[in-house]
Amino acid sequence: MPAKLNQLNKIKVGIVNYLNTKPLIYGIQQAAVASRLLLIEDYPANVARMLVEGTIDVGLVPVAVIPHLKEHQIITDYCIGCTGPVASVAIFSEVPIEKIEKVLLDYQSRTSVALAKVLLRKYWKIAPELVDTRSDYRASIKGTTAGVVIGDRALEQRKVSPYIYDLGEAWINFTRLPFVFAAWVSNKPLPQDFITDFNAANKEGLLHIDRAVAENPFPVFDLHAYYTQHISYELTPEKKMGLQQFLAFVMEEKGILNRMA
Ligand SMILES: C=C(O[C@@H]1C=C(C(=O)O)C=C[C@H]1O)C(=O)O
């Protein structure tokens, strides 16, 4: 069937299905490059898995997955990053950080879970029990059990938990560098003209933040502020330094775990 063949030729692009990607999705869907790609939306850990397994060609993936890729290329000048409090990635708790005994780790996340581990060990210097989750666990964030929550659910959790330890802000206080949560990473070389057009489509989306705000009513949090003051989309040289530092810490953390095993 021609339609199916047509789909097979398309570049498969995975993207996180949270509100913070709406400006980028708007730009991509408005651009001519949209006809060359198939957009697949899922939560970050699943987009990461698809890129590792090769079911997509490029994805806005959690940067923590980069060391797991046989081949990788960062293909745009845009990312999901922050230069101050990010608002949608935090350790949420009913008690102050030094009283936390257990931390539930968000099954949707790869980067923020790794970031929480780095910061608990090196910045807060505490060693609570860390527990992986598989499905919604937010009701269990109570007493001395805290939780890492990311994305839209974190914006909601801000209304629930009295203590909010913003992981973007903590990273910056610790390293003096901005942070990159996710970047556009390909697992194979892609045509240069596609990369150029795809980059331009991202840029165009960010010029129309107001469209993304208008199309996504979200009474819980001011999305204009979220897109312009919390999420920082430009992958600057400073953010690349933050990314390198983070990946070095992640490798170090892995070494510590291997020695403990
Ligand atoms: C800032 C955020 O960054 C997200 C956090 C990710 C992670 O922890 O693995 C992955 C993708 C990003 O979209 C967020 O979604 O709240």
Fraction in beta strands: 15-25%
| Tally of DSSP helical segments | 10
CATH topology of the largest domain: D-Maltodextrin-Binding Protein, domain 2
Reading the helices and strands in chain order gives HEHEHEEEEHEEHEHEHHHEH
Protein name: Chorismate dehydratase
GO molecular function, one term: hydro-lyase activity
Keywords: Lyase, Menaquinone biosynthesis
EC number: 4.2.1.151
Describe this structure in words.
With 261 residues, the protein is of the alpha/beta class. It has two domains: 2-82 and 178-238, 3-Layer(aba) Sandwich (D-Maltodextrin-Binding Protein, domain 2), CATH 3.40.190.10; 89-177, 3-Layer(aba) Sandwich (D-Maltodextrin-Binding Protein, domain 2). Helix content is 41%, strand content 23%. It is built from ten helices and eleven strands. The chain has helices at residues 2-8, 22-30, 44-53, 111-122, 152-157, 167-175, 192-206, 209-215, 223-230, 237-260, and strands at residues 11-16, 37-42, 58-62, 73-82, 89-93, 102-105, 129-132, 145-150, 163-166, 179-186, 232-234. The strands form two sheets. Strands 2-1-3-10-4-11 form a six-stranded mixed β-sheet. Strands 7-6-8-5-9 form a five-stranded mixed β-sheet. It is globular, with a radius of gyration of 18 Å. The protein starts with a helix and ends with a helix.
